[in-house]
Amino acid sequence: MQNVRSDLWQKTSFSTCSYIKSLRDHRAFIVCRAIQSWAKVLELPFAEKIFLDDSSPDLNAMKLLQSSNQINHFDCVRYNTMSHPPHSNFGILISLNLCKSDYILHLDDDIQIVGTHQDCIDILEHGLTILNEDKNILGINLMHVDRSAGGQWGASKDYFASDVFSHPLQYFGNSACLIRRELLEVVSLTTIFNWGKEQPTNWEELVSTSDDTSSFLVAKVGTPFTVDNDAWLFKSTFRVSTLETYKYLLLKKLGLSTLASQFSNKIKEREYNS
């Protein structure tokens, strides 16, 4: 294993949360491939590693984790039985709250890790060093968000202690992130639970709605943390039929990328507005 700063990793938990409706749909393929890409990161000396199946039918997320051959890397594999609105990030918050360490690395189940293992270690240890030395920073979005596409999640003002991270324009993104445990107190799990269906928006937006973004960072350059473009279509909260899946994948296979993109956008618009 490459040299790592064990003092930082001993203060850090790993957390992820997954919902798999069916092991036979395309999203299961995307998630399995993503989890397999975490293999070397899961070997790092975290204080603990948490996996939460967020009420998947038939324990599907647990079954997928086992089929990915990564289940033995986790110290804790749990199943959430509490129902919640799809937009709440409730499952993610449960998995984060299960962690006991000062810092937490969270990856959504469809995040892929690319590039060299050392590149991954370098950016994670850079982020953890920032959390360790700058108590003002509560959360770091490890993904590069292009301002032209990501809008308010994109990089804005430079951060004095890094050439990799900037402050976001407005929102903190938690798809692939490092957080200080105190962030969980800004908008708590209890608050989310009490809101129920009346929760105004996602947790990641709720914790960063202030005009002052100085407590958050986002990658301003490319990083090893990325997501397959198809993952934006096959989200766990979207209802994409088998026929729609076949049509979309066929358009891609035939090289009709423009038509595939238009078809994908129609489904996304339908689901976001439903």
From TrEMBL:
Keywords: Transferase. The keyword Transferase applies. It comes from Nostoc flagelliforme CCNUN1. GO terms for molecular function: transferase activity. This is Nucleotide-diphospho-sugar transferases.
